[in-house]
Amino acid sequence: MATPKTVAFYTLGCKLNYSETSSIGRQFESAGFAEVGFEHGADVYVINTCSVTDFADRKCRNIVRQALRHSPHAFVAVVGCYAQLKPEEIASIPGVDLVLGAAEKFRILDFIEDLSKAPGKGMVRAGEVREAKDFVNAFSFGDRTRSFLKVQDGCDYKCTFCTIPQARGSSRSNTVESVVADARQIAAMGVKEIVLTGVNIGDFGNGTEIIEGLKPKKEALFIDLIRALDEVEGIERFRISSIEPNLCTDEIIEFVATSQRFAPHFHIPLQSGNNKQLAQMRRRYRRELYTERVAKIKALMPHCCIGVDVIVGFPGETEEDFLETYRFIQELDISYLHVFTYSERANTPAADMPDAVPMEERKRRNRMLGILSEKKRRAFYEQHLGEARPVLFEHSSAAGLMSGFTDNYIKVEMPFDAALLNSIRYVALENIENSGQVRVSLAEETLQPVL
Question: What integer pLDDT is reported at residue 61 of this predicted model?
């Protein structure tokens, strides 16, 4: 019997990309390919790219070079956001054979015929982003304890710094029935936790195209989706990956507070704590609304973890503006930050704005907020020491240990026990290690978490 062709994947960027890579992987498996580790020398390499920052673009080039070091004659295909935005640029990278845009990436097997490396520039199949108008189901499985389930794609917002609408097209969603069916399939695979992903998941229901390109009435909103998912047997936890503050309604917050399956964990992009920058970014809220959202969550769920995205060094951000953002975040009852250094993106309004902040200053501000994030995270962890909370255990990168997250997203460590992997057990939160993770011990099964 002939040896099957092998394929390896490398994913850059967000949880949404991970869900899509996994689905593409299942296509290859159905076609008879065997998936191998990236470093094992595959016949085909598929690189799923991000293009949120310049770093992601450079990372793509590095990954192509690494793939060819492992397997010099491999067929290299590049898909994802960077592939849609700059297909010709990617095709010119030495060793790239195929570049697929947003509308083509899920038909990758149609473009891989003889797997022979083409001489010279790679083949490009990247149409206009408006062609990416269909929703394609995707979820991850097999590479993580939890599954990332895609429920929405694209974005109709016009934030001045963002290329995602150019890379993924307009907002479109799955149906409630289809998402529930996916969740049941994931549950049957033994997965305990599902993370709902998308570009703008709070916009769920506002993009499913119907006859003649008309958009339907919002027959199902995000709140309807999570209510339906809460009834899915076999999944012990759902998490909401990220939701815009203007779409994180009181109704959603109140539902999560009473849900048996949705984790007390919100990730809510802020981007700036200064209303001047928020207006320049064309964000659909102001800091006062953000304050209200955090207060509502904490009033109903004092134990809830709240993560925050913030951008530093946006054009025109003065030192006074930055310090206003710093103080605003410092006073917020949030748990951690994801800090992004602003980088100019081609074909975005912000790239042409005056008063660019010097790069060294952007990096300094990033470091300041990074330190603040660690202080916030530690303070949040300290609030819960002595409590018992449920943890989903998984492998750790540290020898002899396993790790996991509590329902409210506290990362913990304890000595490795294979019998506990992919199980949810109550643990007592004992102390914070130098690594920043919390050391725990198993608690009594009947002991309930402190809320």
Answer: 83
